[in-house]
Design goal:
The complex is a heterodimer. Chain A contains 18 helices and 38 strands. Chain A is α+β, with helices and mostly antiparallel strands. Chain A has 4 domains: 90 residues, no CATH class; 310 residues, no CATH class; 126 residues, Sandwich (Immunoglobulin-like); 176 residues, Rossmann fold (3-Layer(aba) Sandwich), CATH 3.40.50.410. In chain A, the strands form 7 sheets. Chain A has an 8-stranded antiparallel sheet. In chain A, strands 8-7-12-5-4-17-20-19 form an 8-stranded mixed sheet. The two termini of chain A are 15 Å apart. The relative contact order of chain B is 0.11. By secondary structure, chain B is α+β, with helices and mostly antiparallel strands. The chains are: A alpha+beta, B alpha+beta.
Amino acid sequence: MLLDTENTSATPSRSFVPHVEYMLVAALIAVTAALLFAMGIFSHAAAETSEGKPQHFAGYVRPNDMGTGALLFPSKEPGSFVEAPRLATDVVIDVNGPIMRTRVTQRFQNPSKGWVEGTYVFPLPQNSAVDTLRMQIGDRFIEGQIKAREEARQVYEQAKAEGKKTALLEQQRPNIFTNQVANIGPGETIVVQIEYQSSVHQSGGEFSLRFPMVVAPRYNPDPIVQTVDLDPNSGFAVNDPVPNRDKITAPVLNPAENAKINPVTLTVNLNAGFPIGAVTSPFHQTDIQSVDDMARRISLKSGSVPADKDFELDWTAAAGMTPHAGLFRETRDGKTYLLGFVTPPTDDATTIGAPAKREVIFVIDNSGSMAGPSIEQARDSLALAISKLRPEDRFNVIRFDDTMSVHFPSLVAATPDKREDAIAFVRGLTADGGTEMLPALEAALRTQGPVADGALRQVVFLTDGAIGNEEQLFTEISSNRGDARVFTVGIGSAPNTHFMTKAAEIGRGTFTLIGSEDQVAARMGELFDKLENPAMTDIAVTFDGANAQDITPNPMPDLYRGEPVVLTAQLDGTSAAGKLQIVGKTGSQPWRIEMDVAKASEGTGIAKLWARRKIEDIEANAYAFNDKAWLDKEIEKVALANHLVARVTSLVAVDVTPSRPAGEPVADTRLPLNLPEGWDFEKVFGEQPQQAVPEDQRKAELQRTEEQAMLVAGRMAAAPTARAASLIADAGTQVDLPQTATQADRYIQVGLMLLAFAVMAATTFSLWRWQLRGLVMEARDRVR
Amino acid sequence: MSDKHSIDGRAGFLARLSALETVVLAGILLVALAGLMLVGKGFYMKAKSELSQVLLKRSFEAQLHGESDVKPWPWADFSTEAEITAPRIGQTAVVLSGASGEALAFGPARLANTPAPGEPGTSVIAAHRDTHFRWLKDVKPGDLLVITRKDGKNLTFRAGASRIARWDKSGINANAPGRNLVLATCWPFEATTQGPLRYIVNAELVTDAPLPKLSALERSVQQAVNSF
């Protein structure tokens, strides 16, 4: 009844009611939009506050930034350094067959008015053997002597305290060396010369060398840097009184200007040992002179600006002359040193046609320490790895925290549905709980059944390595590995690289580091290439008829596509007799090559290369020895005998006479009269007289040099403190700070906003209902 | 009036709503529910961080009394390592080992690649800016910070300058000479989104310092006197 009444009563106002309804809906939408908009603006503002620029000072550097050799002085900013003006650099690289010797001579200046201690930092290619240090400070020449690290440091500290000029060359990391120089007088010029030896890189018939000379992007010509000043009382930032402070001082070291006052000369004497085909330098303009068909002389084109690229030189053999094997010999101190390389046949039908079947066991760490971005990266990496498996491969997935579970009861064929199944399992993993790695490792190595005939067993371990029982794990790997290869993938910003590198070495696999989300695809791609293309496995080297004591590397690693076997060995006696045999397996086919030691050609520097690799082998096997002191002694013995800088040895040089007192004026030392024999410093002293430079241009350049010097001097710490100096020496490592903001506040904020919105909407809604009712009542009244 | 309306099939309140109105109401309810859940999650995180400190404190006390290798709870992936106190501000927290992953949700943590506080080098302790290290902004140069290590040693550090740096350009050298302590948290303090900046407080070990608790007491007395 009443329903009828309502219907009839509503009729007169029907045209009006929907109108009100639409208006209200529109109002509701408008309110929603406004709220969302406000939220958007808010989050945008928050993002902006958090992404403000940190404190940053143009011209200040840290040792880690250095892409090329540079002399650093401690600056007024703690932890930062200023780079001494580099006046000239000369590089000579002698390539003799597979060995290259590099001599770098650089001239720097102390622009300050005080006596300082500087640190010369230089990155080198991995595996470089540094053996020579020569310095010229003012008019004094000193040459470094090899000593045990502690002893060298004491000699240096004492000489420094006595006011003598002294230098100390130490290895910080296998590819970073530092050279501290004490008691550099005001305005003095320092010439540093270092020599190192390394082997030529070979890959797929291409030979190449690389020299680091990156001018890092810190030379931003016009940086927009916001300086943040903190109010010491409140801890909040207040406005900077000089808004564009950094703009004023920034453009000092812009690369174009820097190139003019920092001329680099570079010469490569290439003696390939075989007829040379093409010689190219991909990043720099060069002049190439042909000496004969086996030798070239390459120099950097004058006026070439050092780009932000390392110098690289690639060469190939003339068509059909590519060497696939080589053997070189050096006799030193009654011993024979050999260097051999062999490129295994890769274009063979056996390897390309039928890639080896693989059995992959993935082990993923989902303990609490992996929480946050680490587990995401691990999940992504693993899902990618599983999706790349081929149907003929077999695989399994193991996860562990303080418990562990094996996904499939045994290895399963990587059919699409099994892959999907495993990926879903991986995607569902969350990080929680403790880290008990051993049971998972045992499961991966022992319980997965025997290796199928002709298959490759690969264990891929994804973890941050936050564990304490390293030795136990190493032992487990080395004793139960069998034919398996263990590959480790380090996840997160601070994984335990020591553990993972060693685990991979013992497991004869490789270590891959994934530091951030955007590295997942690229780094995992590199790993897959290796996993999928092992060119040769089970390589062993033996000597027939010669007593070989040390063959490095030991054990021989697996080879991947295009890589040659490069080995060094030490033989008893000086007689070159016997045969070198290398055996290996490509796929399931055995492979074997024999070389006659007597036919090896003479080379120099092989002993040093052998020593360097020997030291690496000792370091790599460190886990097996409990006696670390004995290990250090072994390394020291090899390094001292070969005049090499290593972790436990340093080069130290001390000037015999004390330096002048600070008050005395410094004589012009640009053209020293008597250069000791064998010291080749002219290159960096040559003041480019060949080019007739217009007077005003020269003046301008001179002025620029002076301005630069003054700026550097202005930034340097007033007095050299021992503390600041040693700071640079071991400032190689920098601590990365973790994310320390939770989303809790954000959640609460957004949640409250949503609640407020709901309350508003509900109010609007009830108002709307109420109004409708009012209209209905009114209409009913009218009917009555 | 409401009684008269509930004549058609649907019961009670819903009977008076048209289809459109029901949809709108459901939407509003959903939004409210989502809001409640978010607020709840936020408070849960805060509560977890506060409550876990009680458990951690218990485990740390046990450690101080000689029980070795006590885990705060059986499935924890970390152990307690020290206790940090800021006497002037009146704040204290148990420090965990290894500032990776979930440890930071429960308390401040020492970065695994830095030495323990009081050892040569720079020890770095990080914590969340909105929970355990909310008070870091109140630490002024000269403040004393007391660290009680798990071996029972009491160490006093004096806070120095504070600065702001990107997380990957901290300039902190773990092997720096001296015995230093660095406290780090996210910056800016009032922001609610995660950002790349960190607030860093440097501190140095004070050898033979006066008993810090006493000096803190003295200072508060001094303040009270001054305020009169």
